[in-house]
Write a structure and sequence with these properties.
Number of strands: 5
Strand content: 5-15%
Largest sheet: 5 strands, parallel
Order of helices and strands: HHHEHEHHEHEEH
Length: 211
């Protein structure tokens, strides 16, 4: 039997319980990925690409881990647009700690995204909501404000929740499991990146030996 890398390096063998957890998680992730509607993915991707090509602004919002994902998405889509020659405006409303805490302190945490849309949102812009529960009060307030301002709304959720009726396009994935849902939200992000690149994969070459 060929030794594992950890055994070769002198580390203790992998705990069987952890191995089962890892295998089970990967199996569940594959199952949940297979359950995502390709039609919903195409609709979501089309709305994002259409908005960016039209020169409108895309705002991405989320709480906790989804706030981090919002920043990741804004970064990836902006880079993809740069490679495609699209003059894009993409903003993660959760990225500025100063802005978030100022609005939470002066108004309420429920308003931290909605107030930013009051200042920056315009008709034809797109709000992308990231949430596992679909019920976050500040996302609901943002969706309501976006609708009032004539914006469109795309939801990337783990469960259908209070924000669902406001969504023009919706992808629900992960079966309510926060880890699986957050993983799959990034999968959808990368599908949009590929679409912006004409469907081609972005692969980095292997480094040359010795470099």
């Amino acid at each position: 039997m060929t030794p594992t890398r950890s055994q070769t390096l002198g580390a203790p063998p992998v705990h069987e319980g952890h191995a089962r957890t890892a295998a089970g998680y990967l199996e569940e992730l594959a199952q949940q990925a297979a359950r995502i509607s390709v039609h919903d993915l195409a609709d979501f991707t089309g709305l994002v690409v259409e908005t960016l090509v039209a020169g409108r602004t895309v705002f991405v919002v989320g709480n906790g881990g989804s706030a981090s994902t919002a920043g990741h998405i804004a970064c990836d889509w902006l880079n993809a647009c740069a490679r495609a020659g699209i003059r894009a405006r993409i903003t993660s409303l959760a990225d500025s700690v100063s802005t978030m805490t100022a609005l939470a302190n002066d108004t309420a945490y429920d308003e931290v995204f909605a107030r930013q849309l009051d200042l920056q949102g315009a008709p034809g812009d797109l709000l992308v909501l990231l949430s596992v529960s679909g019920d976050s009060a500040n996302l609901l307030a943002a969706a309501q404000r976006a609708r009032q301002r004539g914006m469109r709304i795309a939801g990337l959720l783990g469960n259908e929740g209070a924000v669902t009726p406001y969504c023009d396009s919706l992808v629900v994935c992960g079966g309510g499991d926060y880890g699986l849902a957050e993983d799959l939200h990034l999968v959808v992000n990368h599908i949009v990146v590929r679409a912006l690149g004409g469907g081609a994969a972005l692969r980095y070459p292997r480094p040359e030996p010795g470099r």
